[in-house]
Design brief:
Strand content of chain B: over 45%
Oligomer: heterodimer
Strand content of chain A: over 45%
Distance between the termini of chain B: 37 Å
Shape of chain B: globular
Shape of chain A: globular
Largest interface: A-B, 20 and 23 residues
Structural class of chain B: mainly beta
Distance between the termini of chain A: 41 Å
Structural class of chain A: mainly beta
Largest sheet of chain A: 6 strands, mixed
Chain lengths: ~120, ~120
Amino acid sequence: AQTVTQSQPEMSVQEAETVTLSCTYDTSESDYYLFWYKQPPSRQMILVIRQEAYKQQNATENRFSVNFQKAAKSFSLKISDSQLGDAAMYFCAYRRTNTGNQFYFGTGTSLTVIP
Amino acid sequence: GAVVSQHPSRVICKSGTSVKIECRSLDFQATTMFWYRQFPKKSLMLMATSNEGSKATYEQGVEKDKFLINHASLTLSTLTVTSAHPEDSSFYICSARVDRAGGYTFGSGTRLTVV
């Protein structure tokens, strides 16, 4: 069974600084997707970044980048130049590549941005 | 971008009554939708997968007679909580596959409170 683990229930970062959120997962599949979703107080799930497992290059979206270590089954999210609007709950998620498959979510990391 | 509209955003109902939650794909056809439940400060847990024109597939431990899912068209899936009890109070979120590349989008969620 697939499991996703986020070992940091809460993190804080000073505005304009960099923070890294950790995520590990367990799977026997060789091809899959990994995601980071942001859930602000509005509770809307917002896709932050996506990584295809077959791609060796780490995904980057503006201030957000990942460190994908496939052998170690690690998928951390780095937020650079943190902004107040980055404060939210962040969920790491896994999904198999077959269409129609569900997401497996981690337990989330609550990020606080300190002005 | 692809949008899933979820309604209502908040609902309060009395114990013993039924509540229907709708998820509509506004600009794409959603052959598969997922229904998740999220407890306070917890992760999203998959309840069921609904496929257009067929019966939903429920996760272990989810009562299919209590949580009725209907996916009668390519743009609408509904979740009906029947004979609601206070322990059914939770945040419910739907998700739909947008494209073959594995893109998914989430509804904005429904806060259900049973009193």
